From TrEMBL:
Any single biological process term in GO: retrograde vesicle-mediated transport, Golgi to endoplasmic reticulum
UniProtKB keywords: Endoplasmic reticulum, Protein transport, Transport
InterPro entries assigned: Sec39_domain (IPR013244)
Residues covered by the Sec39 domain: 11-738
Organism: Trichodelitschia bisporula
Family annotation (PANTHER family): PROTEIN TRANSPORT PROTEIN SEC39, SECRETED PROTEIN
Name by which UniProt lists this protein: Secretory pathway Sec39
Residues in coiled coil: none
Length: 791
């Protein structure tokens, strides 16, 4: 009978039934006896000896009846057999030495949770996890008693529920990789990081709502537990609001660096710290009103920070940033922004002072409480909106950037850096075919980017004049001449001064010219340069730069019909003309590389005139003509074409009364008399088919007389020396001819011989010249040509 058992026997029998998981037999024992089976003792026996793998529903009703005192009274059905053989003394000894676990656990110290049943449930939950790893057994163990204790409910929702969802519902393939024991002391960063590490596969918003949200419910319990055990709080727990949600905010910002679309999706669909899924175990507000307000503000700051933290420069980044911008507008009760593809007239406007934006764009600084870029405010929202639209427009212009990159352009870059970005954009745009309408749109977008519709925009350091000049260059480079006219020349108030427009047109034309590989103005780059000049010169009829450029193109085109190469076999390109300090000297190379080219003197003279005028349209052309003619004469002589050289000297190098006296004229005349002298000295080779020798000598004397007319006084002796030698040759030839004539006519009758021999014609008059030899200076007289003009 039950009443015949001693307290010690009863205790030992309870241990026996418990270890065998015989709950029905256990119910037959007399409970409530403070000496044997008090409620606390029974709970300790169950905690120590009841198999952890036992299905909780088999014993939770017993627990409920035990602690509520509603168990039925003991019956006579108790079987004392298991302990009947023990004497009272031995039973007492065994009872005293019986090892029983204490109910309190580190997770629920008595100071925080005095309820024995709650202590038992939490302690047993840990033992189930430790001994079996069967975490799902904890739910049926504690569920019947959640309404009994706020502490128990908070513990279960914040500790067990996240692990169950993580390992058995959200990511079942992974299982639970963290023991229940570990979650009791893990810090905020570690806990959030563990729970959200797989976020993205099922949605970060879901994991924030269903994992992190329940977990942070235990924020207060964990802090008290760590303080109770002498552990220090983590540094991060004292920052911001001091709540464990701060760890989630930091996690979101740091992950936005490389996983921004995932974070952006969560911001779009998650309501913030108040939006938590407690699985129906808890209803109503779990945060006090003030804390909830501060946490919500930090959540908005996290949304700002996530946009700036994203580092990938892509269309996806800008699109996500725009959606987050809309979400921020809703959270701040601000007007929603226009669509990203809105017309330029509908784009946002505003002026954000530079002082409103610090340089800290690293994730570690974006959540600081005084970070002006991310702290929710009207200025911060306006700046973010302008940056998002700027990044979108830049993307459309072929320059894809993140929002942080756009912020750096606005806040950190110098004028040179901003201009470099603008030039790269225009270079890329100019490399593809675009019609006038597209360029008009590009211009309007760049003007908005410069000013944001006010006084200072993304390209705040680029002046309107510089921007318009760069645009004008692009219009010219792409051949949009009509757009140049309608935008920069014909408007009542052109955006650029006329002088700037003229200079830019010429500079762009010459830049195109310099890139040409062929000098034909109907092909390639030179055709484009020619088209620019032809289209726009009518608007600058009196412009010397336009005239010079036209002469340059004309000369280049004419040169393209000749073979011409540079030293070392390098091909000739149009830019070599502009690079040469003396472009006319190129004609000398042309004559040396193109046999017979000297015969095209008029063409060469035209090229020379254009080259001279390209340097200065007002230049006097007579000197250039003489210089080119002299080059042709020398080329003719090199090719033994004396007759052409003679003709050029006689007909092209005559001295006019008004001959120039400037430096160019003197240089040209120097070449002219030397060319005439060279022709006068030229001797026909033995194989030459030239005419009678006397005729050639007479021509040479005539050329030397022309050289005297062109030469300076210092060269007269040299020329006369050559002239005297030629005259001596002529005299000797005449004497030889006289002897032949005498021999041939000795047999003629009468005075026919005398009639045939005529006196040599007068070819000059006697003048005195000075000559010098080793005996000193003496005077002599020789015949010099009769001059047609005074020397």
């Amino acid at each position: 009978m039950a009443h015949s058992l001693s307290p010690d026997h009863t205790l030992l029998l309870a241990v026996h039934y418990t270890s065998e998981a015989n709950i029905s037999a256990l119910r037959t024992l007399p409970f409530g006896n403070p000496d044997a089976l008090s409620v606390t003792t029974v709970l300790r026996i169950l905690l120590t000896y009841l198999p952890e793998s036992l299905d909780p529903p088999s014993y939770t009703p017993f627990l409920d009846g035990l602690v509520s005192g509603t168990l039925p009274p003991a019956t006579d059905a108790v079987d004392p057999g298991p302990v009947a053989a023990l004497s009272v003394a031995k039973a007492r000894k065994r009872a005293r030495n019986l090892p029983l676990l204490t109910l309190a656990h580190a997770a629920c110290p008595a100071s925080l949770c005095p309820d024995p049943l709650v202590q038992f449930l939490i302690h047993r939950a840990h033992r189930i996890d430790t001994e079996t790893g069967l975490l799902p057994l904890i739910t049926p163990l504690v569920e019947p008693f959640l309404a009994r204790s706020e502490f128990l409910c908070t513990w279960y929702v914040s500790t067990v529920l996240p692990l169950l969802r993580l390992g058995y519902e959200y990511y079942p393939a992974e299982g639970v990789a963290l023991a229940l024991e570990q979650t009791e002391y893990v810090g905020a960063d570690g806990g959030v990081g563990f729970l959200l590490r797989r976020a993205g596969e099922g949605g970060l918003a879901r994991d924030l709502r269903g994992l992190a949200g329940p977990w942070v419910l235990g924020d207060g319990q964990r802090k008290r537990r760590r303080l109770n055990t002498g552990l220090k709080l983590e540094q991060g727990e004292s920052e911001g609001t001091g709540h464990e949600w701060e760890a989630a905010f930091v996690w979101m910002v740091h992950n936005a660096v490389d996983r921004f679309p995932i974070v952006a999706e969560a911001i779009e669909t998650w309501g913030g710290p108040a939006d938590v899924d407690f699985g129906g175990y808890r209803e109503g507000r779990y945060l006090d009103e003030e804390l909830e307000r501060r946490l919500q503000r930090r959540y908005v700051q996290t949304a700002f920070a996530a946009v700036f933290a994203a580092r990938e420069a892509s269309t996806a980044t800008v699109g996500c940033a725009y959606r987050v911008l809309i979400r921020i507008a809703d959270l701040m009760d601000a007007p929603r922004p226009r669509a990203l593809d809105a017309h330029v007239d509908e784009l946002p406007t505003g002026d954000v002072p530079l002082s409103q934006a610090p340089l800290g764009l690293e994730p570690a600084f974006l959540l600081e409480r005084d970070a002006a870029l991310t702290t929710p405010s009207a200025d911060a929202f306006r700046l973010l909106q302008l940056l998002v639209f700027s990044a979108h427009l830049l993307m459309g212009l072929g320059h894809t950037v993140s929002i942080a990159d756009a912020a750096k352009i606005r806040l950190c870059s110098t004028a040179e850096e901003q201009l470099s970005i603008l030039q790269r954009i225009l270079h890329v745009l100019s490399s593809s075919n675009r019609d006038d309408a597209e360029w008009i749109k590009i211009r309007s977008h760049l003007l908005w980017l410069r000013s944001w519709g006010s006084s200072a925009g993304l390209f705040t350091h680029i002046s309107p004049t510089v921007l318009e000049t760069e645009l004008l260059k692009s219009f010219l480079a792409t051949g949009h001449h009509t757009l140049v006219i309608t935008t920069y020349i014909q408007p009542p108030t052109p955006p650029l001064p006329s002088a700037t427009i003229e200079t830019t047109i010429i500079s762009s034309t010459l830049q195109t010219y310099d890139s040409a590989s062929n000098g034909n103005r109907h092909r390639g780059a030179l055709a484009r340069a020619s088209a620019t000049l032809t289209s726009l010169r009518p608007f600058f009829p009196s412009s010397p730069p336009f005239a010079r450029t036209e002469h340059l193109l004309a000369a280049t085109h004419s040169l393209s019909f000749y073979s011409l190469s540079l030293p070392h076999g390098l091909p000739f390109r149009p830019v070599n003309i502009r690079a040469s300090p003396d472009p006319i000297a190129l004609l000398e190379r042309l004559l040396s590389q193109n046999p017979g080219a000297y015969t095209r003197l008029d063409d060469l003279l035209s090229i020379g005139a254009h080259l001279a005028a390209a340097a200065d349209p007002e230049i006097e052309g007579r000197g250039t003509e003489r210089r080119v003619t002299a080059m042709a004469i020398e080329a003719a002589l090199r090719e033994d074409d004396f007759e052409t050289a003679y003709s050029y000297v006689v007909n092209r190098l005559g001295v006019s009364p008004g001959a120039t006296s400037d430096a160019e004229g003197k240089d040209a005349d120097d070449l002219s008399w030397r060319a005439a002298l060279a022709a006068g000295r030229h001797r026909a080779p033995p194989t030459s088919s030239a005419g009678p020798p006397s005729r050639r000598l007479e021509q040479r004397l005539e050329l030397l007389s022309q050289a005297l007319l062109l030469a300076p006084p210092s060269a007269v002796i040299e020329i006369l020396t050559a002239w005297r030698k030629a005259e001596e040759e002529l005299t000797a030839l005449a004497a030889q001819d006289d002897d032949v004539n005498v021999r041939d006519t000795t047999g003629m009758p009468g005075g026919f011989m005398e009639a045939m021999v005529q006196p040599r014609r007068e070819v000059g008059r006697g003048v005195e010249i000075c000559s010098q030899d080793h005996r000193g200076i003496h005077r002599s007289t020789c015949a010099v040509p009769a001059f047609s003009h005074a020397h």
